Amino acid sequence: MLRTLGAPQRRLLGGRRGRPVEGAEPEPVPTSRATVVRAEPFESATAAGEWLAPLRGEAADEEIALGVATVNRALHAHRLAFADAFVAEVSRERALVARIGYGAGDEVAEGRFAEAWELPPGGPRRRARRSMEAPEERFAAILGGREPALVCEALVLRARADLDAGRLREAALEARVALEALLAELGGDGPTAAAAGELAGERAAVGDAANAALRGDLTGDQAAALADAVGRMEAVLRRRRLGG
Fold first, then answer.
1. Rounded distance, CA 176 to CA 143, Å?
2. Closest C-alpha to 206, from 168, 176, 166
3. Cβ proximity of 183 and 202 under 8 Å
4. Nearest to 68 by CA among 143, 182, 202, 161
5. Prediction pTM value
6. What is the DSSP code (8-state) at residue 199?
7. Closest alpha carbon to 196 in 184, 185, 204, 186
8. How many Å apart are CA 149 and CA 2, to the nearest integer?
9. Residue among 180, 161, 182, 176 at smallest CA distance from 212
């Protein structure tokens, strides 16, 4: 169930002409609330409470991840149905608030619960890792034209997104093009050329997965080989970002 909350509707401008302004004040923006509801109800409030009680640690993160995956499946279907390439999927880390709980149907539809937990912002509680990749510096370098944005990087990201979402056929087809782009862009000279060249051995497995995707679903072995290949491509790109 989706609901738009918060901000008043923006005033419509008449005709095609704009209007003069003296200041660029921020416009109020709406907030979207997505509620994922189980198809089968609990037998009783006691059963619902027993389900909720242990959802305080990693189990809560897993439950939220399932909810996010459900929302993203709906957004993917919306993107296809409306032929809108700019419908973006969501992540746990970007959510303003994440709650998990239970209640009567009408309550839950309105964002109210009989009992619920509100999880800390920012996603699963993981130990912070130090990184030498310096994404802010690279962001500035790409915008400033001092470093190229590789085609293979965008393709590998798309393959990873579809792989994690369970869209194996899309991931397989994207991975084949991503692999060829990576070999073309990084397979010459440079500190990652040797590592990139080793990925040429993945052509058979990735091609087999892509061909299977054209016919239908992938087998378990093909899906595993695809995931391994995408992981190896990510590792090569990570080495490049680290400078060797």
1. 28
2. 176
3. no
4. 161
5. 0.80
6. G
7. 186
8. 36
9. 176
Distance CA 47, CA 29 (A): 39
Bridge partners of 4?
32
Cβ contact 97:31 at 8 Å: no
Taking phi over 0 as left and psi of -120 to 50 as alpha, with beta for the rest, 166 belongs to: left
Per residue in 181-232, pLDDT (tens digit) is 999 998 876 777 888 888 999 999 999 999 999 999 999 999 999 999 999 9
Whether residue 40 contacts residue 66, with contact meaning beta carbons closer than 8 Å, is answered with no
Nearest-angstrom CA–CA distance, 228 and 170: 16
Query: Residues 220, 159, 214, CA angle at the centre, nearest 5°?
Result: 60
In degrees and rounded to multiples of 5, residue 4 shows phi and psi of -100, 130
